[in-house]
Structures are given as C-alpha cells and as structure tokens.
Amino acid sequence: xxxRRKLLKTGLAAGLLGLSPLAxxxxxxxxxxxxxxxxxxxxxxxxxxxxxxxxxxxxHVYPDQFHLYLTLPDNKAMRYSVGVGRGNLYHPGIxxxxxxxxxxxxxxxxxxxxxxPELFAQWAGGMPGGIENPLGARALYxxxxxxxxxxxxxxxxxxxxxxxxxxxxxxxxxxxxxxTELYNKVPLGTRxxxxxxxxxxxxxx
Length: 205
Known about the structure:
- This protein is mostly beta strands.
- Helix content is 13%, strand content 37%.
- It has a single domain, classed as L,D-transpeptidase catalytic domain-like, CATH 2.40.440.
- The strands form three sheets. A ten-stranded mixed β-sheet has the order 1-4-7-6-5-14-9-10-11-13, with helices on one face. A two-stranded antiparallel ribbon has the order 2-3.
- The longest helix has 10 residues, at 176-185.
C-alpha cells in the first residue's frame, strides 16, 4: 500500500486515494534472447479513484506515468503499465475502440516506411499475425468520429523491456498476457482518452 506522501511524489495523488497490487505472480517473458521477469511495479493493480473523477467503462492513458487505466464501478480502476510513442509520434486525443482483433495482421503506415525503410519496407504488404508481429496477441483499433481509423492501436508485445518507455511509433503497448486480459474486458465503442505528455495524473473531482 502506498502512503499519501508517496502518491504525491508520483504525481497521481490528484486522482488516486490508494492502491493495492493484484494477487498475481511475477510474469516471465522471453525478450532479446534472454528470460526477463516483468518487475512487480509494472504489474497490473487495482486502484481507487477520487469519486466521480473519471467515467466508468473508459480507457485513460497517461503517457508521462506510462499507465493505462480501465475505469470500473465504485470509483475503482485497473491500472496497467504501458509503452508509448516516442518523441512527437505520440498523439493525444479522444478516440473510441472501432475494432478488435486477435493475433492481428500488421501493416506499417507510409510514414513509418519513409522514416525507417530498412525496417518497415519489407512489410509494406503486411505481416501475418503471430508472436513476432509488432501488434502482439491482441489489438484494440482506435477510431475517431470524424476520420474513422486513426491508425493508432492499443496492442500487445512479446518484448516486456519496452514497457514503461517511450519507444513505439505512436501506439500504446502492453505485454501479451495483459493486453489479452484488457481485450476481454473492453467492448467495441469504448471511449479512449490519450492525454498530452507533461500532464498530470488522473484528474481530481
């Protein structure tokens, strides 16, 4: 249990009254050819929000804290650790889950191919779903009301070393077992808010 002073230091005190870890063992993953145990601090946690601070049944991503919150009834939320877009590739905004896919195929955007053709040009026609696919085991496709598919995703990864870091081409990533858990809880149409960088934690009431 974190005390109030520690919460203030984390920048989350504005939205959280307290948190307690889930009763789950540390998860081992294979990354970069070596066994990697996801640190306990990056494991999902049930957290308590200030009353009426966030609507129920939404996803809120705070990039500076590398946290994603799935809001629940009774002023609670499930908090997951994520990797986010690096530099100016992170795009804040309000979205909704317009599609969901298991072991999705992945196709790099034209901008990605232009930036790093040596990495992405070979997959211009698409990469089949699988453990080495950049979208991992599950993907939530983020849409906007005006433009449809934003090409931003909340997706899985088999490389847990990227969690808690700004490394991606704009999407938010979770380790595969955690994105599968999130995927099963999130229906189509769910509202998703990606907050600006250098922002506060969950808002207070």
